[in-house]
Task: structure prediction
Amino acid sequence: MNIFRQDTEVVETPDADYRWRVFHSRAEFKTLIDARVDGIEYTNFKNTVKDHDLHELYSDFWQAHRGYQRR
Result:
């Protein structure tokens, strides 16, 4: 899934810490994030994720952070 403009090149870097990368200016990235935040219409993000494996990933992340906050 490419959340950037359709003409954005997504570069695969399989040996790096993140497998996929895009390169944008700070201003372009700020514009993208601003538009994405304005488009949020849910109260529970995890419940909007339909892909099972991705939902599990987000749930694991949530559990790890929940545990960290309780310490």
